[in-house]
Amino acid sequence: MSSESSNEQFKVEVTGVSKRYNIYERPVDRLKEIITRNKICCHREYWALRDINVQFPKGVTALIGPNGSGKSTLLQIIAGVLEPTSGNVERRGRITAILELGAGFQPDYSGRENVLLNGMILGIPREEMEERVESIAEFAEIGDFFDQPIKTYSSGMIVRLAFATAVSVEPEILLVDEAMAVGDQSFQVKCRDHIWRMKESGKTIIFVTHDMNMVKSWCDQAVLLNGGRTVKIGNVDEVVDAFEDLMDHHEKVAVKRFTAPVS
């Protein structure tokens, strides 16, 4: 397959991605390593992800797995919020993300101000974002709160604004971390309808969920993670079956452990 056709087929490619966190018992231990220029090791390691290799085609891909399996970490690395310890992520096209509740919003700014700020972060001209503001407000359905500080919002209102802002800029790639589980059912349906239209128009959507019915009815591909490693990738029914088998045999769920550094 040529490089050009590969770029057209896969909007996101994750190659050899690992993510390690250094775990310190006491704050002073970190200082000891800095002072000795790491000649003295005072930490243990936690590997949230290990050697992840996934290609994400156009359409909808679900990241599934037990709690703590690395789903959200992988999504944040794809979004560019986290840097991998090793490996590489190729992103081809404008990308927007709805991650942790309220992530990226300034609590003292109004909804309107946050929308404009989000556009600046994405490199979208202010004039273009100002043209989109009213449609974003209409989609979010938060009324006069649109001009009030985010810190006065309920969790459902934050999700409404986050989703409306993310999809308004017409991304090629949309990342969603369980945000649609928050808020009233009518807005969830509205979000799903919009994602369906994005799918039909050839966009790439990657989302984290524990709703297996949604995975089976919506997704073109699924990725099962356990203990920061990929267990199965591909056919949705087969991946969901593997997930359900994993949850039925809880002893197979990877235990989160800190390990000694390998020199």
Notes on the protein architecture:
- This protein has two domains: 8-93 and 174-185 and 203-258, P-loop containing nucleotide triphosphate hydrolases (Rossmann fold, 3-Layer(aba) Sandwich); 104-171.
- The protein is 38% helix and 26% strand.
- The chain has helices spanning 3-9, 27-35, 71-79, 111-121, 126-140, 155-168, 185-200, 212-218, 236-248, and strands at residues 10-24, 43-57, 59-64, 86-91, 95-98, 173-177, 204-208, 221-226, 229-234.
- It is of the alpha/beta class and 263 residues long.
- The mean pLDDT is 90.
- The strands form two sheets. The protein has a six-stranded mixed beta sheet with strand order 5-6-7-3-8-9, sandwiched between helices. The chain has a three-stranded antiparallel beta sheet with strand order 2-1-4.
- A hairpin with a 2-residue loop joins strand 8 (221-226) and strand 9 (229-234).
